[in-house]
Amino acid sequence: MEHIKLSRFIVLTLLVIAAALTRVMPLLIPHMWNFTAVGALAIFAGAQFNDKRLAFIMPLMAMALSDLFIGNGFSILVYTGFIAMVACGYLIRRKVSVTNVILASFISASVFYLITNFAFFYPVTFYPHNVSGILASYTAALPFFRNMLIGNLVFSAVLFTSFYLLSKRYPVLVKA
């Protein structure tokens, strides 16, 4: 039984690492801003890790490690948004389906967008701390939201399909 748990953990961890590497892509290959697998990684980890703690810890660690490489500082709002994305995956864990993964992709990108672009949270910002500042912040962030949503959909398809196919080939990977 431990062998089964370890095999599943290793495969899930390798998929998380591969997805996290897409955050450092701008250092290697030019691409659209925010078109990475981190949102899909959060959804995937929430849905697939049997241990709830690992479902949150693994993607947060991947995010923190990739932040070291790309030079992003720690932002409580970004990590809070990321935790919300993992929670979206956790909510579909008992019923992973194409429809639920698509819904989780939309909802998680939307929640992340709403949390991270609310101008009142930032002490220093380009936007005034009033309704017009909040609207300006959300408007300016729309291209990033679009790219994150596309990334969530594309990379969720890759992660969930890859793991599904691996589970068909290696039944030991199926949730216990």
Summarize the structure.
This protein has helices spanning 2-20, 25-28, 38-48, 52-70, 76-91, 98-116, 131-140, 142-169.
How is this structure best described in words?
This protein has about 180 residues and is mostly helical. The protein is built from eight helices and no strands. The relative contact order is 0.17. The model has no long low-confidence stretch (mean pLDDT about 85).
Helices and strands, with pairings:
Layout: H1 2-20, H2 25-28, H3 38-48, H4 52-70, H5 76-91, H6 98-116, H7 131-140, H8 142-169
Helix pairs in contact: 1-3, 1-4, 3-4, 3-5, 3-8, 4-5, 5-6, 6-8
Taken in chain order, the helices and strands follow as HHHHHHHH
Strand content: under 5%
Name the helicity range: over 70%
How many DSSP-defined strands?
0
Largest sheet: none
Chain-averaged pLDDT: 86
In angstroms, what separates the terminal alpha carbons? 9 Å
Gyration radius, rounded: 17 Å
Task: Note the total helix count.
Answer: 8
Give the uncertain stretches in residue-range form. Answer: none
Apparent shape: elongated
Output the structural class: mainly alpha
